[in-house]
Amino acid sequence: MNRLVYELFQENPISPTLPPLMVCKEFRRRFENTAERYLLSNADALNERLLKMEDHSEAGKNAVSEINQKIRQGTTALVVLIINQDLYVLNCGSGLAIAMNSENPVQLNTNLHDKDNVKENQRIRALGIDPDTVLNPTRAIGDLQRTHLFEETEAFKNAKGPPVISTPDVQYFRIDPAWRHIVLLSDGVVQNLKEVEVENIPTEVSVRLIEDHTLTSTAQALADSFARKHLDAFITMNDDKNCFISNHREEMTVIYVKLPEINAPGDFYETVDSAFSTMESTNATMADPPSRVPYVDAVGFYSGPNFTEMKRLITMLKKRK
After folding, report:
1. For the ranges 189-203, 262-276, 304-318, which has the lowest average pLDDT?
2. Judging by DSSP bridges, how do beta strands 253-258 and 181-185 pair with one another?
3. Does residue 202 have a pLDDT over 50?
4. How do the domains of the chain map onto residue ranges?
């Protein structure tokens, strides 16, 4: 995702003067550029895999197995871009963005990319694939065995195209003055809540959301609450032969974003990954760091005027610390 940040904010940033339709097109194009660059970064591994597949020795098979583990890696993406009072949501996968107000939460991206989605189900069937043979999510960056080498899988060998694609959806909203926060839920959160039969996730978030002293502790409490709900359901239903809930809980990430007031500077956001949660206390306040230094990704970026300017800015920031 660092590459996407670079595409959006460093290399010819999207102009705030563009009309919303053009911003949506640019947002989508730059995400697709990121997906393409990820594929290119794995070109050597794919070529090596092709050569190793001709080596039927034990060493050759082990080499192919190691490469397969690498190219199976992938990620979903849920990105929110705010330009003045315009809000854009890009989704590739089954993450969920929710706008919170004092009354009813608003689900911002309604088209989650999994088999439960009617459109995704129809897309997969149109390829000649049984949707039941496709694991969720149905859209992602990477996952090259299902996006580019899908014909090697028995269930997909006669398919007209890949079951998993990296094409995102981008939606535009004018920020409602009643919106106070945006909650972003990773696909792991969505999967865990669906597994315990939560039908209305925005309402579930609204009921469980308790604002704490910091954005971090608020997000932490929400992630822990979801984790306990999944655990409680597993314990309660474990003896029911007709109900299956996995004892493996998907890792969950919750991002809690405070929206800026009208004509006011934007606030920061905090992110919490449930993998770091102890679940011992959901009310513990996590102190904010004394200073915030922007993160800059400079991988593969070693020349040109932008590089010179980046070095100047980094040097200036270090002097301020």
Report:
1. 262-276
2. antiparallel
3. yes
4. 1-41+72-93+111-177
CATH number of 1-41+72-93+111-177: 3.60.40.10
Contact of 161 with 54, CB cutoff 8 Å: no
Distance (Å, whole) CA 117 – CA 112: 6
Look at residue 223 and give its three-state secondary structure.
helix
57 pLDDT band, cuts 50/70/90, is very high
| pTM (predicted TM-score) | 0.74
The rounded distance, in Å, linking the Cα atoms of 74 and 92 is 11
In tens, the pLDDT along 69-101 reads 999 999 999 999 999 899 999 999 999 999 998
Amino acid at 153: T
Q: What strands, in cross-sheet order, belong to the sheet with 269-273?
A: 106-107, 96-100, 181-185, 253-258, 269-273
Half-sphere exposure of 135 (CA within 13 A, CB side): 9
What value does the CA radius of gyration of the chain take, rounded to a whole number of Å?
A: 22
Bond from prior residue into 162 cis (ω within 30 degrees of 0): no
* Residue corresponding to tokens 């730059």: 30
Cβ-contact 171, 108 below 8 angstroms: yes
